[in-house]
Amino acid sequence: MSQQEHLMDNLLNIDLEIIDSVRELHQSNWDSVTLKQQVGDLLKIRDGLVDKLMSLKEHDHECGCGHNHE
Question: Domain count of the chain?
Fold first, then answer.
C-alpha cells in the first residue's frame, strides 16, 4: 500500500469516527461536552491527514500514465 493509499484509508476511518461521534452527540441532544471535544479532536486529526495527502499530491507529478507532468 502506498503512502497516499494509507493516508486515504486513515482519512476514511477518521471520517467514520466523526460520523459515529456526531450521531452519538445528536442522540444526546447535542448536550455532551466530551463528545463535542472528541469531534473537535477528530476534525483536527482529519485536517492534518488532508494536509499530508495534499502535500504528497503536490510533489507527485505523475498521474500513473508513465509520463512526468511537471
Answer: 1
